[in-house]
Amino acid sequence: MANPEQSKSWKDSNLYIGFKDFWNEYKRHKIGILGLLILILFTGMAIAAPQLATHDPSPTNKVAPNFLAPSWMSFFDPNGVVTGEYIPDPFLVEAPSFTKVGPYADQFSATHHASEENFTQSYVNLTWNYAAGSGVSIDVDPEKQMPDSSSFIYFTQSFDWPFERIPSDVNMTLEYGVTLTGDFKTQELGGIMFRVYIWLIDSSGNWHQVYHSSSPYTPTLQDRRIDLSYFDIAAGWGGMVIGKDGTQEDPNDTLTVAVGLAPTKNFDDFLGDHPWQYYNGSVTVQVTEISLIAYGEYFGLLGTTDKGADAWSQLVYGSRVSLTIGILATLLSTIVGVVVGMAAGYFGGRIDEILMRTVDFLLVIPGLPLMMVLAAFLGPSIENIIIVISILGWTGTSRIVRSQVMAEKNKAYVESARAIGASDTYIMYRHIFPNVTPILFADITLGVVGAILSESGLAFLGLTDPSQPSWGRMLADAQGSGGFYNGAWWVVVFPGLMITILSLAFTFVGHTLDQVLNPRLRER
User: Residue 400: which of 358, 449, 438, 366 has the closest Cα?
Assistant: First the structure.
């Protein structure tokens, strides 16, 4: 337990008392508290961006069609399809339902593995063990919806469809690898004796084949992406939609996806001198993912951008860029401004004249055109953008610091320090600088606003890294692709609101700091 004397001495320290007095005065200003809470919120968003983002935030990462509206807008359109993953267990964490059919069903087996440490390592194995002369019962479906063999194995994943409208597009992904043994592996034609299938099964029990595999196969897990055609979508979803006559073909709104392994008829056509009855071996299909993304009119928390990227993920990561550039650029420009302002104000004379004329020269040059030239010359990286903003951001700080130093340098405490032999550097940074900081704190917070707006302006003009998600870049992409003209107001409104709210938060905090730390304002 801490010593009471130590606790008492810590609370009696000048630092603690000074901070306590500052906080007691600061919290009297409601606008300052509001600004501080907003800054805390944005800081938390920036830190937790990887957890808050739902997709890769890259502006070119297409996850859905362009300019889909936010999913919460579907409240006003109950039949509108919300784009998303509809299979409830795409990574097969839970054991699916297995079915073996046909007179030779005993040749097939299935296993399920669920990893308690890492659910993404869950998988399903479908195995076909064939011994020479066992038979395969070929019964070809003339509509090609079922396998060539009436004996096969499959597992299913079912989901409910909550809309009275079919999706505009559907993509399915099957991740699997195939391990062969015996003659299936060693014989040249072993890879064409079986197929992996995907079917859609409606609630009326109708099967519709949407995929079948082909050789060559590899045990390495690979993604097979299946883009369903208009006819596939109509066959799978059409019966779940209420028709013009008010009836629905399927008894309920449930659709089942089946993944199966079956022998194929191809061996009859190609075996030649190698009769089927002499083959021995096994086929094992390991499935690790079966996902189904249905596309509609709505997507995610904030819809999609002009390139089909997730707007919410870009917005969240954009807070990192704005805060990083705003704070670092302001700190860098503040350091330069303090050094220049203190040197000019303390030494005066020729040094003051040279430094202040340099400041006047930079103030005369239009800021945005110069930043555009520097950004184009140095490159679009975040580090270069910070340098570009800092080059023009220190002039105002240097003038403020200079005027305050000139007022302080002739006071008695400075004369006393000179009398005892203190160096100029010691006097400037040990005695004068602490009396400049109250004004400096307010200037820093207001300077962050200018840095954030400068970064947004450069991004809007296309002079920042296009691979980095930022609010200015989102506005630029929306403007260049006609976001408003396409009715995609969300790609303009939300980035603009973020820039405005964050800038206002720093302004509120800076205004409050000025009132708390500036003695003249406190006297009023």
Answer: 438
CA atoms of 224 and 213, how far apart (whole Å): 9
Please write the tens of the pLDDT for every residue from 280-300: 899 999 999 999 999 999 999
> Taking the domains of the chain in order of start, what are their residue ranges?
18-56+306-523, 81-296
The H-or-E segment that residue 335 falls in is helix 311-347
Kindly report the CATH class assigned to 18-56+306-523. mainly alpha
Q: Are 321 and 466 in contact (CB under 8 A)?
A: no
Determine which helix (DSSP H) or strand (DSSP E) holds 108, and give its type and residue range.
Answer: strand 108-113
pLDDT tens digit sequence for 192-251: 889 999 999 998 889 999 999 988 899 999 999 999 999 999 999 988 887 777 777 888
DSSP 252: S
Distances from the Cα of 45 to the Cαs of 32, 40, 42, 51, in angstroms?
20, 9, 5, 9
Q: Name residue, tokens 């069903």.
A: 105
pLDDT of res. 436: 82
- Token pair of 333, please? 């420009």
Half-sphere exposure of 309 (CA within 13 A, CB side): 23
Rg (CA), the chain: 35
Query: Binning pLDDT at 50, 70 and 90, where does residue 483 land?
Result: confident
Quote the CA–CA distance of 447 and 291 in Å, as a whole number.
48
The angle at the Cα of 448, spanning 443 to 453, to the nearest 5 degrees, equals 130
Tell the CATH topology of 81-296.
Jelly Rolls (2.60.120)
Which residue type occupies 39? L
